[in-house]
Amino acid sequence: MKKIGAWLAIAIASFMMIGPGALSASADDNSLQKVKETGVLKVATSPDYPPFESQTTVNGKTEDVGLDIEVAKQIAKDLGVKLKILNMDFGSVLAAIQTGKADIAIAGLSVTDERKQSVDFSKNYYTGGQTFLINKKDLQKYPTAKKLHGQKIGTQTGSLQNNLAQKYFDDSTVSNMDKTADLIFALENGKVDAVGIEKPVAQAYVAHNKKLAMIDAGYPNDSVESGKAVAAAKGSTSLINAVNQSIDKIQKNHWTDKYLKEAGKYVDDNAEDTSMLRYWHYFYNGFLNTSLIAVLAVFFGILLGLLLVMMKLSAWKVLSWPATAYIEIVRGTPMMVQVLLVYFGLGTLINLPALTAGIIAVALNSGAYVAEIIRGGINSLDKGQTEAAQSIGFSKVDTMRFVILPQAFKNIWPSLGNEFISVLKESSIVSIIGVSDLIYQLNVVRADTYRAVAPIVVVMVIYFLMTFTLTRLLNHFERKMNHD
User: Fold this and answer.
1) Could you give the CA distance from residue 215 to residue 130 in angstroms, rounded to a whole number?
2) What pTM did the predictor assign?
3) Where does the chain cross the membrane (predicted)?
4) 3-state class of 357 per DSSP?
5) From the CB of residue 401, how many other CB atoms can be counted at a distance below 10 Å?
6) Residue spans of alpha helices (H) in 3-126
């Protein structure tokens, strides 16, 4: 079971939903009508959780596959609309439906009381079971889950498994990680003795990793707690009712068994060849998006930084105060929060694509830091430069344009270069909203191949080559400016 999600994202989404539109949603439910009018069912999911949802290459193209994807296809078919899959970090799927980015979320979601406070749920379309993964060599040591009491148990952060382990294994040390692949790696290396995980996911790991074994968790009311349901925004009664009709059809025809069997074939195909060369196009696409975000964010960040520093240095308080406030707020809050706010917050007003929202958020963040870098460069110059320029008739604007800024940029070039490199690396946070950058692709490849380390090494090498090349290029221009 996946983590319950980034509560911060949900909090931001809930805040942005407070308004006339949100208040009228429950009174006037047009959720189903809206989907039919647009002709598209937008589904939020996180393709790093096979066999529920993952990605594979079919005829040279990347496709979303898995049990949840097939359920989504059937719902869209019954509604008579097209299906649009919105891939994002699992922590963002509930925020996506709360802010209208998606109509429904299908991402291996278990129904919990906490989630019911934020979203509406359909009937369960699948019921599995809870298990523990252990190292096969420890089967005699831990033949049943009861033997795990007092041991080290790993679970996914904020997940149902975490809640269950905390409740029923309160004498054990329960540690959390964000990704299942990291938990498996920790298990293999002896960092934890067992990993709490859902039965279908555990079965897939055991089938493709001969070092692992699976034991039943033995939790009370296991079948009820393990149910998977579709989520929609609060008050989406008509849409949930339509979804329930599709689920009734799926269960009547026992299609979930067929869906899982088909998903298993894709899992087997991915596991047959786990060479990183097979996934070169994943890393290549991640490289392109990461580079695009960094270049555009720095370009617009410099323009915004220039504007902010001019405002901050202005004698007019009406200009200097807003600029100062903006810089302090941006520098005082995490970039992840800013990315979520731009994507989900502005998403209530403008339907921004994830990539566009990511570029805007990173550029807005970079602009604040660039402003301070430029201000530092300006303040480092002798005041006599300004006095000399004005003495020969230069206006304040011309003095800044032709005398101060050229010298300031020459002095701050190394700092701007460092900012570029920082943006290149820190922009990886945009993967949380589904931007297919290097980190996003890394998690997809890890999920598809069941390999924890190799994809990390590949991405680390790519980042190093990018930053090394960029550093050499920036140093070249620095030497050229010093020579001039």
Assistant:
1) 9
2) 0.75
3) 282-309, 340-364, 452-474
4) helix
5) 12
6) 7-17, 20-25, 31-38, 67-79, 93-98, 113-116
Could you report the per-residue pLDDT of 166-185, keeping only the tens digit for each? 989 999 999 988 778 888 88
Among 96, 97, 82, 102, residue whose Cα is nearest residue 38: 82
pLDDT tens per residue across span 24-74: 344 458 899 999 999 999 999 988 888 888 888 776 678 889 999 999 999
Q: Is 457 helix (H, G, I), strand (E, B) or coil?
A: helix
Please state, in angstroms and as integers, the Cα–Cα distance from residue 27 to each residue in 31, 33, 345, 415, 436, following that order.
12, 15, 23, 54, 37
Q: Can you give the length of the chain in residues?
A: 484
Residue 346 burial (CB count, 10 A): 17
Question: Using omega within 30 degrees of 0 as the cis cutoff, is the peptide bond preceding 20 cis?
Answer: no
**What are the structural domains of the chain?**
7-125+226-272 (3.40.190.10), 130-223 (3.40.190.10), 278-483 (1.10.3720.10)
Torsion sign over Cα 308, 312, 315, 321: positive
| Angle, vertex CA 64, rays to CA 59 and CA 70, nearest 5 | 115
CA-to-CA separations, 393 to 135, 211, 407, 408, in angstroms, rounded? 80, 79, 19, 21
CB of 436 within 8 A of CB of 422? no
**Residue holding tokens 């949802």?**
53
**Degrees to nearest 5, angle at CA 445 with 298 and 282:** 50
Give 269-300 pLDDT, tens digit per residue: 666 667 888 888 889 999 999 999 999 999 99
Q: Strands 194-198 and 119-127: what pairing?
A: unpaired
Q: How far is the C-alpha of 98 from the C-alpha of 105, rounded, in Å?
A: 10
Q: Are 41 and 103 in contact (CB under 8 A)?
A: yes
Alpha helices per DSSP H over 273-353: 280-312, 317-331, 335-340
**Structure tokens of 411?**
């002095």
Tell me the residue type at 117: Q
Grouping H, G, I as helix, E, B as strand and the rest as coil, residue 118 is coil
Two tokens, residue 461: 């090498």
Give Cα 230 distance to the centre of its chain: 20
CA gap 386, 79 in Å, rounded: 69
With residue 208 as reference, give the H or E element that holds it. helix 199-208
Contacts of 22 (CB under 8 A, 6+ apart): none
CA distance 49 to 283: 19
